[in-house]
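Researcher: Here's the sequence for the chain we discussed earlier.
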Amino acid sequence: METIDPSGTLTSVPGFRAGAVYAGMKTFGEGKLDVAILAADRICNVAATFTQNILHSASVDINRAHLADGRAQAVVVNAGIANSSTGARGIGDGRQATEWTAGKLGLAPGDVLICSTGVIGHYLPMDKMRAGIEAVRLVADGGAAFARAIMTTDTRPKHGSVRFGPYTLGGCTKGSGMIHPNMATMLAFIATDGSIEPSFLQRSLSRAVSLSFNRMSIDGDTSPSDTALLFSPVDGVEVVTEGSALGQEFVEALEALCIYLAKEMARDGEGATRLIEATVTGAASENEAAALVRLLTTSYLLKSAIHGADPNWGRIVSVVGRSGLRVAEPAVTVDLCGFRVFEDEQPTPFIIDKPEVVSEAMKGDTVTIGVHLGSGEGTATGWGCDLSAEYVHINADYHT
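Model: Thanks. This is the structure I predict for it:
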């Protein structure tokens, strides 16, 4: 597997085209592209994960139905309006959008998926949706425009690609607020020209999501629209299987790309100035380690301290203490930006004598937190961001 190319996009993958236009749905965000289409030259096996929010969007219902056979060839996306909590009309509007897209591309409507993101409880303006779909021009280098069009309060597009064997994986994500994945408002689109065996494709995506998007949080809120889609052509020269060497390369590449995109989302959290990377070791299980990572990246007290570069390690210890996890108290250690600040059930001499050194380190782009629980072999890493006053301003004005 090669390293991630941050300039790569969905259309870095051979056999995929994309395009985007501004149809007047989005009144915020850079570029103001707001309707986009991604299409494959061939029918694809599609793996997917969806939000666990019970009040999910119309798009989630439609996609689950269209993926009953596990296949699709295109996806249409709009930004600005989530088409969520819009009842039967929302379902009908979303299906109509897939039919218009299918007609444009010469596909069956069931082979077109849809994702909508933006304000909840508003109906899609179907005249604008239709005009946007009709105006999109699909091109071989349209991946960058697609990544811009799916943005809402994101400040920049997030995309990348990576090679495995003779094949490419390309992807993009959106999401800056309402991000607490349980499958964030996040959407993820990934494509490969490798033909991956369908059940292996789904298992690989589910595992990659659990190691990346599900370990990233910005504000603790889970969107009703969260979706991750992975496209792989059905009729490749070879079929990549789980037990093959190329299959292992695929898994490593997919996990690396998803982790890269998750970190990019956390860096671009609403109002964020720093990335938080939290690693928990010595937990009783991987699940318990991941649970503590989620608590550390969503503690408003801790996130506020990180924004102020305040080395208040006590806020980390308090999160550990309220976690309810199995902990061997005498063995617990805490590191902050690489400095040991707590061990043997007390602060270290270093943090007592030189807190300003830790504070200076916390002013960098990334703040690392390391917690060892001493109760097992479980480990997990996850990502979040600091909490600034700008986050409150963005969300106080989001709807109005």
